[in-house]
Amino acid sequence: MLRSFLIYLSKAEWAQRMVTGWKFAWRAASRFVAGETIDDAVRAVRELNAKGINATLDHLGEHTSTPGEARQSTEDILALLDAIGCCAVRANVSIKLTQIGLALDPELCAANAEKIAAKARDNQNYVRIDMEDTPWTDQTIAIFRGLRAKGYDNVGLVVQSYLFRTEADVRALLAEGTRFRLVKGAYKEPPELAYPKKADVDANFDLLTKIMVDYARENSAPAVSEDGRIPPIPALGTHDPNRIDFGIQYAQKVGLPKEAIEVQMLYGIRRDLQDRLAKDGYPVRIYVPYGTHWYPYFVRRLAERPANVWFFISNFFKG
C-alpha cells in the first residue's frame, strides 16, 4: 500500500510542487542525488573512481512536455558526454527515452537518441537506455534496436525481472549482442504484466542472471573496458545481497571471470557493499543521478525501502 502510494506521488505534479518547496526535502534527497549541475556529478564520480568504482551518470528528467524541452534535455546529455571526456572520469551515461521525447513523438525521440549515441561513439563512450514503465517497453526496445541497426554498438538496455515478458526479451536481445543492466523494477505494474510476489521477482532475477552469464561465457566473456566506460554483458542492478551472491557464485561455477560480470548500485545506497565488492576485485558501477528534476527519482527511492521513508521523515523533524 505504501509503495503504491509513493509511486503515485512520484508522478503527481501537485506533490512535486509542494515537496520541492520544502527546504529540508533537498537535504534528504541529496543522499541519493549527487547535485544539480554537471560539476556536482563529476565531483561525485571522481570520489567513486578514487575507490576503484565506475559510474553511470543520469541527467534527471522524464516525460518532457514539449519538443523544445526534449531537445534541451538532449543537449544537456551531449554536454555531459563532453564533460566526461574532458575530465577523463571513468563513467558512461544512462538516459530515459521519455526525457528526450518518446511520449511526444517517437521519431523525435529516435533522432535525439541517435544524436546521443553518435556523441558517445565520438567520445569513445557508452549509453545505457533505462527501462521505464510498461506503456513504453515495446517502443524503448524498438528505438534501441533501431540504433543497433544503424551500427551503434555502444548502446545497451535495462530489463526488469518483475515483468513476465522479460525472459523472452532477454533471450532474443542476447542473440543480438545486447549488454544488459538487470533490475527488479521500480514501477507499479498491473498483475497481468508483472509478478506480484517478491519471491517470484527474485527467482526470475536469478534465472535471467544465469541466462546472461551463460551467454557471456559462451561468447568470449567480454570484460569491463580498461577506461571503465564499456560494461560487460551482464550487469546486476541490485542492492539485494542474495541476488548478488547468487550471480557471483554462479559465474564462478561456470568459469566466468570476475571482470566479465558487473554489479551496479544506486548512489548513496549500500556504500559498504559497494566498497567490499570493489575491494574483492569485482567491477562495480554506481548510478549517479544529478539535476534539478530530482523529485520523481527521489520519491521512487522512498518507495523501494521503508528505511528510506524514515530517513526522509527524520529530516522533516530536523527542520
Number of helices: 13
Kindly report the CATH topology. Answer: TIM Barrel
Strand content: 5-15%
Q: In terms of per-residue confidence, which ranges show pLDDT below 50 for 5 or more consecutive residues?
A: 315-319
Structural class: alpha/beta
Number of strands: 8
Report Rg: 18 Å
CATH top level class name: Alpha Beta
Number of individual domains:
1
Shape: globular
The description of the largest β-sheet is: 8 strands, parallel, barrel
Query: What is the CA–CA distance across the termini?
Result: 27 Å
For the largest sheet, list the strands in their spatial order: 1-2-3-4-5-6-7-8
Could you state the order of secondary-structure elements as H and E?
Answer: HHHHEHEHEHEHEHEHEHEHH
Average pLDDT, to the nearest integer? Answer: 90
Q: Helical amount among residues, as a percent range?
A: 40-55%
- The CATH architecture can be named as Alpha-Beta Barrel
How would you portray this structure in words?
This protein is an alpha/beta fold and 319 residues long. It has a single domain, classed as TIM Barrel, CATH 3.20.20.220. It is 51% helix and 13% strand. It contains 13 helices and eight strands. The chain has helices at residues 2-11, 13-19, 23-29, 38-49, 67-87, 106-122, 137-149, 166-174, 198-218, 241-254, 271-279, 295-304, 306-318, and strands at 54-59, 91-95, 127-129, 155-160, 180-183, 234-237, 262-266, 284-290. An eight-stranded parallel barrel has the order 1-2-3-4-5-6-7-8, surrounded by eight helices.
